Amino acid sequence: MNTNDTYLAVFTSNKASPRWQAWYAMSGEERRARDEEGLAALKAWDEAHRNVIVYAGGPLGPTKRTSPEGVADVVNELTVFVVVRASSHEAAARLFEGHPHFTIFPCDSVDVMPLLGPKSDM
Questions:
Q1: Of 16, 59, 65, 117, which sits 20 to 30 A from 74 (CA to CA)?
Q2: What is the pLDDT along the chain (122 residues), one digit of tens a residue?
Q3: Could you give the CA distance from residue 110 to residue 40 in angstroms, rounded to a whole number?
Q4: Cα separation, 42 vs 19, whole angstroms
Q5: At the top level of CATH, which class does the domain 3-114 belong to?
Q6: In what order do the strands lie in the sheet with 53-59?
Q7: Whole-prediction pTM value?
Q8: What is the spatial distance between Cα 108 and Cα 11, in angstroms, rounded to a whole number?
Q9: Cβ 22 vs Cβ 108: under 8 Å
Q10: How far is Cα 107 from Cα 50, in angstroms, rounded to an integer?
Q11: Do 31 and 22 touch, CB atoms closer than 8 A?
């Protein structure tokens, strides 16, 4: 596989969504139990996909946006990222079907996009 087979997967979450509201409504004990279940499932997913994970990535923190107006704190829906290899864009997207981030944790979706560089003339 080459860089044409490498994909960035970004998990998204709208923290005002009903799924997150339900998460926030859980008791501390319920959330800890769900965390335990989810972390075990994430570990199993990572192990099952270890041959295609190029970079394990991880959670994303607070965002600063730089624009012509300067630097500002912003809120976006980017939550977690990972870089994988797959034979096609479709195959890369299908890797995340049933992923624990949205079957156990309250993430909304995973956006998968090809990494297009570096270009051969660079």
A1: 117
A2: 455 799 999 999 998 899 999 999 999 999 999 999 999 999 999 999 999 999 999 999 999 999 999 999 999 999 999 999 999 999 999 999 999 998 999 999 999 999 987 655 43
A3: 20
A4: 19
A5: alpha beta
A6: 53-59, 78-85, 6-12, 109-114
A7: 0.86
A8: 7
A9: no
A10: 22
A11: no
